[in-house]
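Spermidine/putrescine ABC transporter substrate-binding protein
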Amino acid sequence: MDDTKRYERLLNRYRDGDISRRTFLTALGAAGVVAGVTGGPMGMLARKAHAATPEQVRFDGWGGVVSEAFEKYAFAPYTEKTGIDVVSGTFGGADEYIARVKAGQPGEFNLAHLSGVFDYARYHGLELTS
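Tokens:
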């Protein structure tokens, strides 16, 4: 089964009330982070680092328990395996994050856990992806 089908099934389960909003967003966010870190289909949403081998990548999210889980189960193993540090940041909303990306340097913001597919589509529509 391809990733598009998986995301569609996840969305349908959410719409049918089989899973909570929190579970849906956590699963979608985790899939996005994993795909972004490994260069999967959602990796297009991450700005490419200009260095051949970056010393660090930046992840911005909402903070709290979801970011703590990313740190423990995704970023720490990634850093251990690659030697590339993951620097975590937080933001208050998609508008704040997009303003930071627009004001930042290319490659400064690498990965983000936004609130939903519409925020990712907006981010892509502003040509902030690579």
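The chain has one domain: 3-125.
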